[in-house]
């Protein structure tokens, strides 16, 4: 009892601000018990649960299966949870709310034996008001029955949920996200939890943003309930603290709160010297909204947020007045780790999402379902913009399943509308009808009218309502709403496979068939994975902002980290990540780092020397260098090699370089020969020793049962260099109050939870998790036969606890990433090309559809009648102009080549075959002045690459406008044509 009183007093001091405010929030994650399987009477207060497993949340009950089982084999069943709790004396408990950040999938909640609610969407947060049901003087029992069946059906309608899908939505069941308990007085600001509570909380937003002057008008709006029997005159107060904790603004307004009513309180004030949130600059403010009566704060809510200015116009995205080409990753929302699933420590979310930013990504598109709160807040801190879905599978739906999607979008918008990193709301993973788009826009406009966020969907190429669009694998351009590829480059590569010439010798394209398609279509080693990564980004880069009126606004690469979702190779997980499941980078990660380092144009100093320099004598090796510079030089032990072949603007290939042990050096230069950067690879010696390092959150390591340590083990030679071909088995020994979660490697059960596992390419990582309320010293030792061992030590800090509640300090005081600095002051957009306007068009056939070849609608096209003699089209410009090139999106763009001739005022300026692409081909020719441009099919088009590729679900990949013209000998089909004058740089 003395210990409890001491801790209680400490907590009163720690929560002094909250105590004065009359609101307190605690973690409700501790001391749960669960049982796998349905149990009768498990909701009853007298039920004996002593034999049930004890757990601290967040934690999926089937977490051990993450990466050891394929997604479709993850266990599903009924699981019961129970938690006993009391309200400590001294806590104001007029109103008591529970906040579940999310359960998987459907749950039924019971308090003290009474049914109190249901939550069934399997994704978003939900709240429960237990104020009238809780026993304030005795112990309470909360029981939850959760069903994570793949075929879960809504109880009221018997409808399934579209996003409960075995391909992409990894099924980590139970309560894999945080739970909180909130105590307030009867006059309080509501929680942003629409499910069950039907409340919307606080909304903070800015208007009249002036970036150069650093000013804006700050608005705060809070939904307030007065559940007393008297009206109250209150002062609504807002206090704004900057990222350094300094109070920079206070303003207030008086309101009358009628008895037993809900009211929206809104006020605004001007702010000066604002630090605006930006890419890689997670500058956040804390806005505290208070309800004050008679100079006493009766409720206070802290909202962590940031301010930025956005626009979505002219086919481009603007952030803080500057054009930003979108580049990043389409990441599975589960964002999972081996043997843990999604329930990682808060700092690990920052570590993973921060790695995206360090690769120079600026956008993450969470796939199919809304991410959990921890990832959204993490993106705020690291400066990573988000494309936020509600829930979807692969198509538009009707009836109750569509209503599920609108309800989920509503809940997500309310929950995340104060998070500055959210720039896009995604309505679907496929196009939706204009009627449905209008519904979604209405929801956005109702709950987030001033957040500066675009709402759209994948595809939506011809929509008049969507505010952005973009297909999955293809290049789209637009002069209207931005076109952003939502998931490009689906190739896969294990991190351990360097190339065909070094251990463990992976031939490009080697692997099993997938739905009848050969693995050569997708299965890479690290070298060829880099080539593909550069090639694919280059296609978007060619159509970047500044290349005319119609541009592409970028794209996101699927996926960032290897994922326990739909797969094609021998492994039972997806290996498309630029990092592996433990977030160890592959070479393609560094390739993106070079290409993406800039708002549009990359920093020319970017340079990466691909691979390693450890081969058998006599080996000839194609050496790859990724660079944004004008020229790259390669030397072996100081001997300069022949000039490289330059591919795709960013890739330099030095063919058949003779291996010679020593130092491989790459240098990059400007056009005039100025050295920009230098990188080296050194031949290493034999494995000699182990290096073991460990990291945890910069805010500390806490015994909350969820905080984690990530330990990295490397095999080094005598000179301390990592041995890139090492695959030694490492034996780990743990001593101290933490649980072993381990890592992953190729082998039996993917070595999940194993305490001995091999390094791959000389390195691996393992995870350890704290135990609830168990603090102290921890030592981890790593040994391997024939190598010098290593060990590392750290300390787990104790918790601040009060009965069943604790302060989740691992969630607090996490630092923001500010390394990139504020948005650039100088214009990022450089106009490289001028689009020449078309006044009239004439065609050899189907004249009435000729204008569809330049109508800024990639779902329409012009096509002739299949006769070679009519396979021509002539564009007349608005005025005579200098003409340098034509961009064409031709039907069957990914498989068919067209022998074309281009004439300017009857002068032949181009005669050649078009390349197959992901969309557009650029046909350049010597500058010619003229007014009429004729594009003519010279001979029959021919197939250069069979369109055998299929989506993960087996659907054949798109190849333009669907039409049965494969055997037509004289068919010319133009989806879009752009005529350009190239401007001087």
Automatic annotation (TrEMBL):
Domain Beta-mannosidase-like galactose-binding: start-end pairs: 75-164
Species classification: Bacteria, Pseudomonadati, Bacteroidota, Sphingobacteriia, Sphingobacteriales
InterPro entries in UniProt: Beta-gal/glucu_dom_sf (IPR036156), Beta-mannosidase-like_N2 (IPR054593), DUF4982 (IPR032311), Galactose-bd-like_sf (IPR008979), GH (IPR017853), GH2_Domain-Containing (IPR051913), Glyco_hydro2_dom5 (IPR040605), Glyco_hydro_2_cat (IPR006103)
Any Gene Ontology biological process: carbohydrate metabolic process
Entry keyword annotation includes Nucleus: no
Every Glycoside hydrolase family domain range: 695-791
Family assignment from sequence similarity: Belongs to the glycosyl hydrolase 2 family.
Keywords associated with the record: Glycosidase, Hydrolase, Signal
Domain Glycoside hydrolase family 2 immunoglobulin-like beta-sandwich: 214-308
Annotated ranges, domain DUF4982: 618-674
GO MF terms held by the record: hydrolase activity, hydrolyzing O-glycosyl compounds
Listed name of the protein: DUF4982 domain-containing protein
Signal peptide per UniProt: 1-19
Species of origin: Sphingobacterium paramultivorum
PANTHER family tied to this protein: BETA-GALACTOSIDASE (PTHR42732), BETA-MANNOSIDASE (PTHR42732:SF1)
Residues of the Glycoside hydrolase family 2 catalytic domain: 312-450
